[in-house]
Write a structure and sequence with these properties.
75% of the residues lie in helices and 0% in strands. The protein is an all-alpha fold. α3 runs antiparallel to α4. The longest helix has 37 residues. It is elongated, with a radius of gyration of 37 Å.
Length: 130
């Protein structure tokens, strides 16, 4: 008669023994189920990561050209006056600070701000037209 618990290595030397085969079945089923679940979760995470990192690339955008009716012309027509209003408001506020404080550094700030506005606007147009 065999003992209730098989000694260590018994199933390695007698792999066809019924209790060894039956003992391996639940482990094999559980392992295959766990592996398939882990694989599915991994695939899901990969798909989610791909979607989160590339959803903005798949947006349909009109042609960016400077032809009449193009996107660049439309944006320039909608925003040029905002640029002028902001630049003029900045110059007026700077001039008021210059008059109140009577400090020449305020004039330098005004000139730097206007120069920066002109350079940024011109640089943006140059980059878009490349």
């Amino acid at each position: 008669m065999l003992p209730a618990v098989l000694p260590m290595g018994w199933c390695d030397t007698h792999p066809a023994f019924p209790s060894c085969v039956i003992g391996k079945i639940p482990g094999a089923i559980a392992a295959s189920g766990f592996e398939s679940m882990a694989t599915s979760l991994g695939d899901g995470y990969i798909q989610m990561l791909k979607m989160l990192t590339s959803f903005w690339v798949k947006i349909d955008v009109g042609a960016l050209d400077a032809s009449p009716g193009g996107v660049i012309v439309m944006l320039r027509d909608l925003t040029w006056w905002w640029l002028l209003v902001i630049a003029c408001a900045g110059a007026i506020i700077g001039g008021a600070k210059l008059a109140v404080n009577q400090d020449a550094r305020e004039g330098q700030v005004i000139v730097k701000g206007l120069l920066r506005t002109v350079l940024v606007a011109g640089g943006g147009v140059a980059v878009i037209n490349l």
